[in-house]
Amino acid sequence: MASNRDFNYFKAFVELSGYSLKAAEILNNNLHNFNVNTIEEKVKEMHNVEHTADLEKHKVMNRLVKEFLPPIEREDIISITENIDDVIDSIEDVLIGIEIYNVQAIRPEIIKFTELIMNCCKSMNSALVEFEHFKKSKTLHDAIVEVNRLEEEGDALYINGVRNLYKTSKDPIELMVWTEIYRLLEKCCDSCEEVANNIENIVMKNS
């Protein structure tokens, strides 16, 4: 029978972040090839990814309850697991927003944002892959810095996108809908940065 020591929390973080990559890919593909007639089906596909990720998160938490001596502090394992889960939830929220606001067409500049979110998730995943070897890794710092850089790029896309929105439209419903969707998109990048910052803080505490 496998013991608790056989469970690798760092690999569990990487597996969990893999669901963020799947979610980001679903979001990007669906907004690239937007079809209002299939959005409900795509939201269900996204929710299946989010739900599976939730199950994986609970496995980590259940294992931690029984863990005698975790590799890093319990609260750090909990916080980084929840941070990764927040990324997945944030990505799902964008697609849900597209559906509930009955969006009929995607603004072209939105695609830049979904591609950026994919890159954020990839860099976050790279950081988590290196996290297990944080005492020796030569690339972990660069991956963290890249997530921070991409989040700043997301801030710029948000500011420029909302500014352009209010310059080109006077329709109150359109303004409300797209302002909210831009906010949801920015939150995805912010959530990735939370993971990166958390990794950096944990490394500092354990170095």
Automatic annotation (TrEMBL):
Signal peptide: none annotated. Transmembrane segments: none annotated. InterPro entries: PhoU-like_sf, Put_Phosphate_transp_reg, UPF0111_domain. It comes from the Bacteria. PANTHER family: UPF0111 PROTEIN YKAA. Belongs to the UPF0111 family. This is Phosphate transport protein (TIGR00153 family). The lineage of its organism: Bacteria, Bacillati, Bacillota, Clostridia, Eubacteriales.
